[in-house]
User: Which sequence fits this backbone?
């Protein structure tokens, strides 16, 4: 029988593989589309996504988590949550369809109405997809995610780029999003041994939703705050400013979402299985924090360092106004892996009430800062800085509750965070100063990336940095061939 360590190693391997593939393809597609489409095209989609994202959060927020958290969940539980999810998705699509003309009038943009109605079909797909993913996640069969994501990401990229070249504007992005969701769901239907059935048990639903509704409300509250920011920017400052803000958020979000999702997908079921063993739970949580910050901090700090070069060389000068947003929001996303892991550990012991309380308090603070930034300071930069302040407040509160519930002290949390952050900041300063070389922007960017990666890896090997050693050992667990082990063993000192 496969050991728990091997399951985690395999799960992380396939989950990271899925996310890395999605990240690489999404990065390429984002760059190509940013060069082909205008900020106004992106602005329209950003406005539409405010409402789609909010509704999607309701569909995916609590039903799937209830399946993963329940220790003895069976197919009746899964099918019951499926019925709840599908019913919710149909109801929300009807609301979106009927509200589309009013939303278009609010923004004085006629194109918003048809795009909202078409892109809203994604909600119906999410009703099935979120339950599929929860069942696979619970069983830690992450290879299936890799397969579905591979097909969905690549095919949607082809469709989106082809339509952009044909001059379809914002509709190219609509087609990309819908194709990705549809293909992912179909592939999971084919590869998954669980097939959806219309079975429903009210006692099962009541029991699981007693946990799930708190997670759902937590997700919705977070989404409201995030979407409110975009809604107000789009209305007060215009679709172009919203596009610059969203473009600045896109690349940090891309990095964090992909790796953070991998950690969350693998660690939540593992943490849930360890909910009765407090010491093991804390140990697993600390490991996830160290790995997450080790992988993400160099990417985000590095992105801050190369921001000027990256935008000019890759996205072109027309996107230059997004540079300050990119830098500020990269700092915002820097602590997301830590907060996600800590909240997952709290959820794993059934304390969804705490995460709900956290989200409500954080978002009350966030909305207050948002209104001050928009209506008093009247600048989008102030909105971004306000988001950073909110994130710092949220981090402080999360640290407090993690100590109180899990016994993961603030001192231990800082011990797990600071080493990787310190190394990343040194690396970030190094690549930033390379910006002053009088070279071609694309050449400068390549040099910055190469030097930054080489420095971070070299120092990790030289000091035998604990997260790095663990990741190498995890790969050795996954690839047991002698040749692969010889290669990996060169990176770490053999134990005596």
Assistant:
């Amino acid at each position: 029988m496969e050991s728990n360590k091997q399951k985690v190693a395999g799960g992380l391997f396939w989950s990271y593989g899925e996310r890395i593939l999605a990240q690489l393809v999404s990065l390429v597609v984002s760059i190509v589309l940013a060069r082909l489409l205008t900020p106004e095209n992106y602005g329209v989609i950003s406005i539409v996504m405010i409402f789609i994202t909010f509704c999607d959060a309701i569909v995916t927020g609590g039903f799937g988590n209830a399946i993963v958290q329940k220790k003895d969940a069976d197919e009746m539980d899964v099918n019951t949550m499926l019925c709840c999810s599908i019913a919710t998705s149909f109801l929300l699509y009807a609301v979106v369809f009927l509200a589309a003309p009013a939303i278009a009038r609010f923004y004085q943009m006629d194109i918003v109405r048809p795009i909202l109605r078409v892109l809203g079909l994604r909600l119906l797909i999410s009703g099935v997809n979120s339950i599929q993913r929860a069942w696979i996640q619970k069983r830690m069969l992450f290879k299936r995610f890799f397969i579905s994501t591979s097909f969905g990401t690549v095919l949607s990229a082809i469709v989106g780029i082809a339509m952009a070249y044909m001059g379809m504007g914002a509709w190219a992005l609509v087609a990309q999003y819908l194709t990705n969701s549809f293909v992912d769901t179909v592939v999971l239907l084919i590869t998954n041994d669980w097939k959806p059935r219309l079975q429903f048990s009210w006692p099962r639903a009541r029991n699981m939703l007693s946990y799930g509704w708190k997670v759902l409300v937590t997700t919705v509250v977070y989404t409201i705050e995030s979407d409110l920011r975009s809604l107000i920017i789009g209305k007060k400052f215009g679709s172009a400013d919203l596009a610059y803000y969203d473009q600045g958020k896109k690349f940090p979000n891309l990095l964090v979402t992909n790796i953070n999702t991998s950690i969350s997908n693998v660690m939540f079921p593992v943490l849930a299985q360890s909910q009765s063993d407090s010491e093991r739970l804390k140990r697993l949580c600390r490991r996830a924090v160290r790995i997450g910050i080790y992988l993400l901090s160099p990417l985000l700090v590095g992105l801050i360092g190369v921001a000027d070069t990256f935008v000019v060389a890759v996205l072109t000068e027309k996107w230059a106004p997004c540079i300050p947003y990119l830098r500020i929001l990269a700092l915002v996303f820097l602590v997301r892996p830590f907060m996600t892991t800590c909240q997952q550990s709290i959820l794993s012991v059934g304390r969804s009430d705490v995460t709900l309380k956290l989200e409500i308090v954080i978002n009350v603070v966030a909305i207050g800062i948002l209104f001050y930034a928009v209506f008093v300071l009247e600048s989008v930069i102030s909105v971004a800085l306000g988001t950073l302040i909110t994130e710092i407040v949220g981090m402080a509160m999360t640290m407090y509750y993690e100590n109180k519930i899990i016994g993961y002290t603030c001192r231990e949390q800082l011990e797990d965070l600071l080493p990787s952050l310190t190394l990343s900041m040194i690396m970030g300063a190094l690549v930033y100063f390379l910006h002053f070389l009088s070279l071609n922007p694309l050449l400068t960017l390549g040099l910055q990336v190469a030097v930054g990666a080489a420095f971070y890896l070299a120092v990790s090997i030289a000091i035998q940095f604990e997260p790095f050693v663990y990741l190498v050992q995890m790969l050795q667990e996954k690839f047991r061939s002698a040749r692969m082990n010889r290669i990996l063993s060169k990176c770490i000192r053999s134990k005596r």
User: Anything to note?
Assistant: DSSP finds 19 helices and no strands in the chain. The chain has a mean pLDDT of 82. The radius of gyration is 22 Å. The chain has two domains: 1-236, 241-463.
